[in-house]
Amino acid sequence: MTMLPQGTQPSPTPETRPAPVTRAPSLPCAFGYSLASRPGSSRLPACAQSLPTELLCNIFSFLPLDAHSHCALVCRHWYACVPPTRTRLARWREQHPWLPYLPCSRLALSYSSRIYPWLARQHCPLVPELQRQHHEWLHQENHLQQGPFRHQQDLQTAQQQEQTAQSFLTGLVLYSLSQQVVQARHLTLRPVPLAWPDQQTVNRCLFSHCSRWLAVTCIIPGGGINQGRSRVLHLYGYEEGSWRQQTLVGAPDKPVSVIAFTATPADRLLSAHGPDVRIWRKQAHTGDWHSSLLCRTLSSYSIYMITAMRNGDIITLSDRRRADALDSTGFLMLISLCQGDSWAPATAYFDAFLPRITSLSSRSCRLVLGGGCSQQCTDTRHINSLHFWYKDPGANSPGGWRHHQSLVEEQNDYLQGAMFSPGADLLLLRFSQGLFSLWALDAQCRLCQIPLAVPRCQPAQAGWNRLAHFRGDGRQLAVACSPHRIEFLHSTASGVWQVGDTLERPFQADERREPDDTHCVIRLSSSGRFLMWLTAWRVEIWQRDPGNPWRRVVERTSPEGAHPMPQAGLLRHGEAIWTLVADPVQSLCIHGPDTQGQLIEKGRITTTDIHSGSNAQSADGLSLLLGRLGAAPVMLHLDVPANSDSRDPDRPEHSGQ
């Protein structure tokens, strides 16, 4: 692979994550941060350690959550007086091991404008503690921005304190949202007005990582869905309880083809217009959004993917496909390295091969491209090439990005797709004849095949990535072998993968046959307790409790010839699942576990619209976007009725504060 310099090679960005601190072995840990005291803290005098319990509880009630962790380390007396939220949060974290693998969340940024008003309306008992932690984060953020710092160590300490405060706020927000959704017996789906240009149709939508922004590409009147010139960009912001259209100053004349949001730094929108990738920022003094050029591919190439990694680096993929002249094809990847609040000039990597598959893990900064046949291929021997790109801060390569190629042999079978596990330590490969294989990845993305007979599914099936899904922690895998049978694989405590249960739905004599056997979608909930099973005319939800077999708890079927086909998906929090089926009247339902862990229907709304894609729900799980051809989209906002019981059953009536 030839590297073409497109600009000055930047030096590696300093690592901004807090340095690890020594963990107290007998105390719990919340969201990756140990409960050790802050640097420089001194031992308190004996009189402070002997303060009355009532006085200590009163003092602690005014402190933010991250300060509770420091207080708990002073002595046993102080540990016993710390409010229980810290230990409940740590216990919840231990009971949900998939939380570290969730997509990068920046919900702290939308707390004051979006999440706090929602939780306050639901009378969430954690609101006072959320407010204190939010104020602490704002204080640390303001201290960090006031700089400059005289010593590098002072800067690193300020960054660590700000990141710790934000991490505790994000963890407390996730916990509060999950508890409200689980404990609510009923949920309502409230339509929210959305200003929309006449006769424009949604093409693609995307919420930001903080849920405050919604980017939508749409089709203008008179243009077809496949006509690139017809796509335009709209941006909405959530302000004062409604979605308001934002002003994009100097929008390019060329149509938009790809959009993406960055997580680091936050509140940046990326859009591709022809060969250009532009980055949009909101101006503090006007509130308008202005764009600047991030990078540019070759004029004859088409951009088909933009992805922002968790560390802020941006990868742009483009290619040129000429069916009439194979020697004129090419692939070009641009890597723009994050440098604080901006990006360095892009570095370009060119190759003549065209990747058939692309899979990435933005959280782990890993990318795999492949599908091309290596030079060692013969008529009876097919060797697939895989190109891995991964971040290695200690590498001498530009920006710490490394590349290596791996070869995977499969007789008379070419690679059709690849999928990373949530932790990006596993790679699931799918071949054209329906064969799956599971591979382990080390720190250098070297492949090691797991000796496991992964079930085979139907060959040449469209949308193969819908046929397999990992549990939230990556330790369980479900594979749809057919629209009537699902196989489960799991990793034991020692890390050995084994074939597990089989979930089979026998075909009944009076049952309507599937009009399209290739339409099958399965999704495992984060905990692996619930399975969503979608076919061409039916949606099922299955539940498995510890020690018991799978059982069907929801079945919704549409009449023969009904349009559109059923839809379903997972919500962000509370293990909730949404289903959209005409049975016979089309309605959107929210299903979620109650406080006893049993799945119930929590909300329903009649609608003529359909769900607008996999990205049509916000990161906080409070908004869903529906749309249909020739009509304005409908924004639904999740609410808990005022008379719904949303009290935390684990929260004591009196906590001693």
Structure report:
The chain has 657 residues and is an alpha+beta fold. The chain has a domain at 22-183. Helix content is 15%, strand content 36%. The protein has 8 helices and 40 strands. The strands form 10 sheets. Strands 1-17-14-13-12 form a 5-stranded antiparallel sheet, with no helix packed on it. A 5-stranded mixed sheet has the order 7-11-10-9-8, with no helix packed on it. The protein has a 4-stranded antiparallel sheet with strand order 2-40-39-38, with no helix packed on it. Strand 3 and strand 4 (213-219) form a beta hairpin. Helix 6 (111-121) runs antiparallel to helix 7 (127-146) and helix 7 (127-146) runs antiparallel to helix 8. The termini are far apart.
